[in-house]
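Appendix B. One record, verbatim.
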Amino acid sequence: MDDVSRPVATVLAADPLLGLLLPFWQLVIGAFVLFVVLVSIARLARRGPSRMSTALLVTAAAIAGFALVGVLLQG
């Protein structure tokens, strides 16, 4: 007989070693994204205020879009 009332465990990684490394790779990817954002901000700042305002509008639209997609796909 199968025990149906038992909760299903979420598997993050099938291999235990990969399960230990999973947060490390997320940290590496986050650091790389932060580096790219800082470099692009520095380049935009050198180009002047008109490009900065356009970049801020595009960034705000991207953040709102990602938030909307995240809310729609949640659940």
